[in-house]
Write a structure and sequence with these properties.
Chain lengths: 131, 558, 304
């Protein structure tokens, strides 16, 4: 059997709305992926350490608190510092269109805003992970 | 409720009707094989008196202002006073929020509702490492009494009712409010308002918990006890189904899980030696309003009837006020779409109607742009105007509970009540709400419903206009509210300055005393109030409690 | 990557090597070749028990205890209960989030999947890697519900069985084969009513089992209240000392290596056979009953 795609799903920052994170975790599972779910209130350090130790193919974070411009670039920098920049980094949540370019310039490969079908996120991950 | 002979006749007519419909359907099939509510409950083609055959009018429906309060808690409802139009708001700094409150009061908003930022909600000061990027983002940052004084500057606290969305550190924020009032010369006994103070739904759905279940329940019952003597007009808890629904539950789950939480609080208070009729009247609830208008109306009516029965029959309440479920409603944030945001105004209108036809005591209407960012002043105004149009132009406020007697509404009300009761029974079997949360039962039920809904949307089974049907290419929405990142820095500076200028010895002494009280079984409120008055920070106070109580660990339920 | 030079600090490389060996991808044999001589110094603890017994919390608190003694701790958290889609959600890290940034800790989650040799071999391989790169203690944590989990924790030097009060019937229902593997029993959540009763029940159950030279202790603890943890650590140390003194540890590891060798051989043989041109043909004949399974196996075996 082929090695399944491993994805870390986590919530950086303090917001506790994890419906989106859990729905995507289930959808990725049903698409045959192995999901490492790290839960609420994750610091960028915790997310990146987990990604490295778990050797995931993709880090997918969900954030609704509005702290994305602070926290996501930090995750990206820690991935680079940890020799893990090859891990695909995507984000979802309430993220205004105007911030998306800034996040893309900071290593976030895709931003999935509310209403994005899970299939879109799944396909993006499948097509863009480095295998 | 009906004459038996007439019902027999009705059965014949219904058979005729069905035969006729079947024939017509054979030629022109209906749009769907099965029709469902927004919560995926089956809906029949037609409801008739036969669906209410067993019902006793007085027992099930009755009169507004009378047990079981199906039709509302006041005898004349909105003919007397309209619901409180309470807009949840709180931005960045205490100064800015203060301005917004004054604006809302001028616009005719009849109650204040404070949104706190996440660090405040989790008991971290603005200079805590985990607060980075979060300060002032989803609400106002409150580090100490000094911020609270600015927040309510120029707002006479004996004239407004204030609702505070605060849970784990509710005791601390309430103490700050009491202290501000004192400085204004307003006695605590005159204060009106609500603290959310509902920790169980934080564990289930909202995530701003701090302490483990047991000490959290103690904080809550301490507040019940303290307020029953010192702040008697204050609603000490707002038992919230809102966030349970946002997390993806069905309407029946919203009622079942919320009332189970309510039962847990009542039991905790009884165990702490309180009398059900001293705190019962101060319990309030908080529900969601979704798009399925009729299902939602039935939901509120079912919740009211069920709670009245629980308080009377299970807990032996004598005071009718203990049996009356008063509730706040907020329109459903998760129903808003990031696509074609103008459509959200229409959704909010339907939801407003649902809440009003369901007999809410207060209402917050969401703004159209909230799926994208915090709302702008302009969109908040439209949301408030929506309530005012329903209040003054729609006519639904002219009579009490106008949908009562609808065969569908009454059948649906009973159906939701029964389904909710099943959940409550199941949770009782597990050993109560706290245990059911620990074991993940409640979270798993909600997640299953949420995931099924997501699949229905993706399969086109459930249609969301502008999202999976009637999509258009759109321009990037402009003019969204942004919080200046400098806010966090300024808040940190303010806190540093405060710590340098206050009487540190007094702070240390108050915190030490707080620790002692926390370790004992004395009521904790006076010690918190004393600490707050020394300008001890929220983080310092909760750190003392963290040390004594420990911290909650999330159950792993995906 | 020069495998030999990878140390405990190089978390990225360790993570990658585990991926290679657990999936038996191209190059994994070289990893073993480079590292195997460095294995053998870590002590491996298996933690198992029924769902909801608080294994992750206990793992978390034990790991903290070892860290405070300046040990490097590797944790392998296994959830073998995922469905057939091949996907899984692994959430054991949630209970150990604060540990994950500690430089002395390395945590890896594993789900059930179709690895050749199965989860057991994958676990064993991951243990070898962590051992070789500098772990002092390795904790394997898994739900103990059936035979396959027993296979997983068998790679451990000491096995902790975690129980909770009020499982009366469940203890009866647990197969003797599962109870038998426990070296130390921990009644977790000891603040719950019935903890002592459960302790007595477990002790009674153990007294019916074949006598071994090591008598498994039954301890009361509460991982969340951090009570009774030192006693668990002490028991682990006694068990280790006991095994080292009597040469039992050597025997135990030899037995485990024997199984590993067997799994690798099985795997290799299976791969070889599957590559044979005749394989589909023989399978066809077997299906059509023109040949019996033993004859089929012999026929393929001779072709290798």
């Amino acid at each position: 059997m082929e090695k399944p795609i491993r994805v870390l799903v986590g919530k950086p920052g303090l917001d506790g709305h994890d419906r989106g994170a859990k729905v995507i975790a289930r959808a990725l599972r049903d698409a045959g992926m192995e999901v490492i779910y790290t839960g609420l209130r994750q610091t960028p350090e915790q997310i990146v350490q987990a990604a490295i130790q778990e050797d995931v193919d993709c880090v997918a974070v969900s954030i609704l608190s509005g702290a994305h411009n602070t926290l996501l670039p930090k995750i990206n920098q820690l991935l680079i510092d940890g020799d893990a920049a090859d891990i695909l980094f995507v984000a979802g949540g309430v993220i205004p269109e105007a911030d998306i370019q800034f996040l893309k310039d900071n290593g976030v490969k895709a931003v999935f805003t509310p209403g994005t079908p899970t299939t879109v996120s799944i396909d993006f991950i499948k097509e863009n992970v480095k295998r | 409720m009906y004459d038996d002979k007439k019902l027999d006749g009705l059965k014949d007519s219904l058979r005729d009707y069905e035969a006729k419909v079947e024939k017509s359907i054979a030629r022109f099939p209906e749009r769907k094989e099965v029709f469902y509510t927004g919560s995926k409950e089956k809906v029949d083609r037609l409801y008739t008196p036969l669906d209410l055959e067993e019902d006793d009018f007085n027992e099930k429906i009755g009169f507004p202002g009378s047990y079981p309060y199906t039709r509302g808690v006041q005898p004349n409802m909105y003919r007397g006073r309209l619901w409180t139009m309470r807009m949840y708001a709180g931005f960045a700094t205490a100064e800015e929020s203060n301005k917004r409150y004054k604006y809302l009061v001028e616009q005719g908003s009849s109650g204040l509702s404070v949104a706190f930022d996440l660090p405040t909600q989790i008991g971290y000061d603005s200079d805590h490492a985990l607060s980075e990027g979060e300060v002032g983002k989803v609400g106002v940052a409150i580090d100490s009494l000094a911020d609270m004084e600015i927040l309510f500057d120029g707002i006479p606290l004996d004239k407004v009712s204030t609702s505070m969305t605060i849970n784990a550190p509710a005791a601390v924020l309430l103490a700050m409010y009491i202290a501000v009032a004192e400085k204004q010369g307003v006695e605590a006994s005159k204060l009106r308002g609500t603290i959310q103070n509902d920790i169980l739904k934080e564990y289930i759905a909202r995530g701003t918990y701090i302490f483990p279940t047991e000490p959290s329940m103690r904080l809550i019952t301490d507040i019940f006890e303290y307020c029953s003597e010192e702040v008697p007009l204050w609603n000490t808890i707002s038992i919230s189904g809102y966030h349970i629904r946002e997390a993806g539950s069905t309407a029946a789950q919203e009622v079942g899980f919320t009332l189970s939480d309510g039962i847990a609080y009542v039991e905790a208070a009884l165990k702490a030696g309180l009398d059900v009729d001293t705190f019962g009247p101060r319990l309030s609830f908080f529900f969601n309003a979704h798009n399925d208008l009729l299902e939602e109306v039935a939901k509120y009516r079912a919740a009211r009837r069920l709670w009245a029965k629980i308080m009377k029959e299970r807990f032996g309440a004598k005071d009718p006020k203990s049996m009356m479920m008063k509730f706040h409603t907020q329109t459903g944030g998760s129903t808003l779409t990031a696509q074609q945001t103008e459509n959200n105004i229409v959704r909010v209108t339907i939801q407003t109607l649902a809440a009003v036809l369901g007999g809410t005591q207060s209402l917050h209407t969401n703004s159209k742009d909230e799926a994208l960012a915090l709302p702008t002043e302009e969109s908040v105004m439209t949301a408030l105007r929506t309530q005012q149009i329903v209040a003054h132009e729609s006519g639904v406020t002219n009579t009490v509970d106008p949908l009562a007697g609808s065969y569908y509404i009454e059948a649906k009300t009973s159906e939701i009540e029964e389904a909710a009761m099943e959940y409550i029974k199941r949770i009782d079997e597990i050993g109560g709400a706290a245990k059911a949360i620990d074991e993940g039962y409640i979270q798993r039920e909600i997640m299953d419903a949420a995931y099924n809904y997501q699949k229905d949307v993706e399969d086109g089974e459930a249609i969301v206009v502008g999202v999976n049907k009637y999509q258009i290419e759109e321009e990037t929405p402009q003019n969204l509210l942004r919080v200046d990142p400098i806010v966090g820095e300024n808040q940190k500076k303010k806190l540093r300055a405060l710590k340098e200028s206050r009487d540190q010895a007094a702070v240390d002494k108050a915190l030490l005393e707080l620790k002692k009280v926390a370790q004992s079984d004395e009521n904790i409120m006076p010690a918190i109030l004393a600490a707050v008055k020394t300008y001890a920070s929220l983080g310092e106070i909760t750190d003392v409690l963290r040390e004594v109580f420990g911290e909650y660990k999330q159950a792993v339920i995906v | 990557m020069n495998y030999k030079e990878v140390t405990w600090k190089n978390k990225r490389q360790i993570g990658r090597m585990i991926t290679m060996v657990e999936n038996a991808v191209e190059g994994h044999e070289e990893v073993f070749e480079a590292l195997y001589e460095k294995t053998g110094s870590a002590y491996v603890i298996g933690i198992t028990g029924p769902p909801g017994a608080g294994k992750s919390s206990l793992t978390d608190i034990l790991a903290r205890s070892f860290i405070s003694r300046d040990k490097n701790v590797g944790i392998i958290a296994i959830d073998p209960t995922s469905p057939f889609t091949g996907g899984s959600i692994l959430g054991d890290r949630i209970r150990m989030n604060e540990l994950s940034t500690d430089p002395r800790v390395f945590i890896r989650s594993m789900g059930s999947r179709g690895q050749l040799g199965g989860l057991s071999a994958a676990t064993s391989s991951a243990v070898q890697i962590l051992d070789a790169v500098g772990a002092d203690i390795i904790i394997i944590e898994t739900v103990g519900v059936g035979q396959s989990e027993v296979e997983i924790v068998k790679h451990a030097d000491s096995i902790l069985m975690v129980m909770v009060p009020g499982l009366g019937d469940d203890i009866q229902a647990m197969k003797a084969g599962i109870m038998e593997i426990g070296d130390i029993f921990v009644i977790n959540k000891s603040d719950l009513p019935g903890a002592n009763k459960t302790k007595i029940e477990v002790e009674a159950m153990l007294s019916f089992m074949p006598k071994k030279s090591w008598r498994p202790p039954v301890l009361l603890a509460s991982a969340t209240k951090e009570e009774g943890i030192e006693e668990v650590v002490d028991a682990l140390e006694s068990h280790r000392a006991f095994q080292e003194e009597d040469g039992l540890l050597f025997e135990r590891r030899k037995r485990n290596l024997n199984e590993l060798l067997f799994e690798i051989l099985q795997d290799k043989l299976f791969r070889q056979v599957k590559k044979l041109e005749d394989y589909p043909l023989v399978l066809e004949e077997l299906t059509e009953k023109t040949i019996d399974p033993y004859a089929a196996a012999n026929q393929l075996f001779e072709k290798i």
